[in-house]
Amino acid sequence: MKSTPPRRPGWQPPSRNSVRLTRRGRLVVTAACAMAVAGVIALTVTLALPDDRQPASAKTLTIPEGWRASQVYAAVDKALALPEGTTLKAVPKADLKLPAEAKGNPEGYLYPATYPVTKRTTPQSLLAAMVATAAKKFSGPVVTGARSNAMSVYQVVTIASVVQAEAATPADMGKVARIIYNRLARGMPLQMDSTINYALNRSSVHTTEQDTRLNSPYNSYNRMGLPPTPIGNPGHPAIEAAINPTAGDWLYFVTVKPGDTRFSSSYEEQMANVTEFNQRRQAARAIG
Asked: 227: domain range?
């Protein structure tokens, strides 16, 4: 989410319908990076052992929650010792059982889990297993939950992917999901930095004024509604938050310091929290 830039001469507070959210603190991205590294380490350890020391079934590929499709493709290439880009090229040939709304794009449906890797495993078979797992996970209660929120399952997965990218902890996911629903209901742009990061294929806590003018359907600062696709592959806690958001009237949130994420319904309260966040960040830079 986005930190408010210094006021320029003639700056006026934006109207409630154009207020920008602020981004989360550094800890969240650090934690996400740590989780991604953990997934890579798990893969590296299992694949590094000689074949004569373990059965083929012991080889696995672990996909962490929140990974983007591009990261999954790269991990599959590595797991199968294939040239970079092989799995991406295999997507159109994989005959993945995706919802019509996905238009052939498996983003959001490469379900985070641990998958076996054998000598017969192919990119197509791994991707198909991930999508089949997602189909099972997104049935039953998820279908019912989507309907109760007047959403399609695909929209719920999209919301969950934003929640996964934005929430500092699993405990915060329900509140972040509620903010998304509240903003949609009020006709407010989501203004989530995670959607811009997805468009730019990066992970960053620093979003500039120029970034927010990016010409992309994933720019939720100047585009209304949900992004056109999920922005990652959410896990069960994020999906649960998307179908059962916490009750509340919040419209904003910011992680002022590690373990201190503040949710608010008023612009004035949010700006006070943002000021504290910026002061702490400046103090940390001075020390560092």
From this structure: 169-287
